[in-house]
Amino acid sequence: MKKEWYLEYEIQKNRPGLLGDISSLLGMLAINIVTINGVDEGRRGLLILVNDDDQIKRLESIIHTMDTIKLIKLREPKLRDRLAVRHGRYIQRDADDKKTFRFVRDDLGVLVDFMAELFKQEGHKLIGIRGMPRVGKTESLVAASVCANKRWLFVSSTLLKQTIRNQLIEDEYNQNNLFILDGIVSTRRANERHWQLVREIMRLPSVKVVEHPDIFVQNSEYTLDDFDYIIELRNDAEEEITYEVVDQHNMFSGSDFGDFDF
User: Fold this and answer.
1) Bridge partners of 93?
2) N or C terminus of the chain: which is more exposed, having fewer CB within 10 Å?
3) Are 172 and 147 in contact (CB under 8 A)?
4) Counting beta carbons within 10 angstroms of the beta carbon of residue 187, is it exposed (0 to 12), middle (13 to 18) or buried (19 or more)?
5) Residue 69 has what pLDDT?
6) Structural domains of the chain ordered from first start
7) Residue 167's closest CA among 209, 198, 190, 189?
8) Residue (of 217, 195, 198) closest to 208 by Cα position
9) What is the 8-class DSSP label of residue 103?
10) Spans of the chain, pLDDT less than 70
């Protein structure tokens, strides 16, 4: 049975024809190349298709004898590997918190692709997304939902107007739906009926996304440990994500959310 593997190598001695040599080696081992791309400076990543694990063992043994390349990864492909080959670079991951992934606004295409792949996975998944106002969080969620062929439901939101759902209709309790909550709206605007609905949704074997997860966990029984993934979206790599603007616009009074347009 054919199986995909991910091969990543670092170029030690760059010379004309090196890629051809690698392709010829794979061809001699009857290994097919599915996709190839640069994934970092001086590195190439390949998705390859093999018939059995012996091919992989022989490939690894031969690469270790070559002085032109250094083997970096040879494994069954993970989501980050597939996206790296698809987009030509790796998604940034927090060095200390492995479930936190970082993007900037110029990466919206990669972010949408990443989230769409997460949304396609079956079963319960809780995803948090951090970011400043108007950085593109909600539009990315909607675009990823479309790519994943998921119906999205706003349980709480300020996308068009303030939305706070207290109940769902029968066909909305569908595990194929994507449920989106705004952590600020839910914790600072909602009543107990809304929270009963949130708890029901959390028990569904489906994907849930919480914007502003830090505010959400500060004011609920949930913790950041409950999240499977945390996504951070910034206008640029140096931007600090802060919630000072929330207090500046007095979120506790009235219905005006001021400039905090999530």
Assistant:
1) 101
2) N
3) no
4) buried
5) 94
6) 3-84 (3.30.70.260), 91-248 (3.40.50)
7) 198
8) 198
9) E
10) 160, 244-262
Q: Provide the edge-to-edge strand list for the sheet that holds 100-104.
A: 92-93, 100-104, 229-234, 125-131, 207-211, 178-182, 152-154
Note the residue count of the chain: 262
Q: What is the pLDDT of residue 254?
A: 38
Encode 204-219: b = buried (16+ Cβ within 10 Å), e = exposed.
Answer: eebbbbbbbbebbbee
- The CA distance from 221 to 216, in Å, is 9
What is the rounded distance in angstroms from the CA atom of residue 201 to the CA atom of residue 55? 46
Q: Is 203 exposed, middle or buried (0-12, 13-18, 19+ CB in 10 A)?
A: exposed
**What's 98's DSSP letter?**
T
Structure tokens at 206: 């489906």
Q: Are 178 and 151 in contact (CB under 8 A)?
A: yes
Classify burial at 221, counting beta carbons within 10 Å of its beta carbon; exposed 0-12, middle 13-18, buried 19 or more: exposed
Whether the CB-CB separation of 85 and 47 falls below 8 Å is answered with yes
Tokens of 91: 């998604």
Angle (CA) 107 111 114, round 5°? 140
pTM: 0.84
Paired tokens of 242: 């802060």
| Residue whose C-alpha is closest to residue 103's, from 75, 72, 80, 77 | 80
* 22 and 36 Cβ atoms separated by less than 8 Å: no
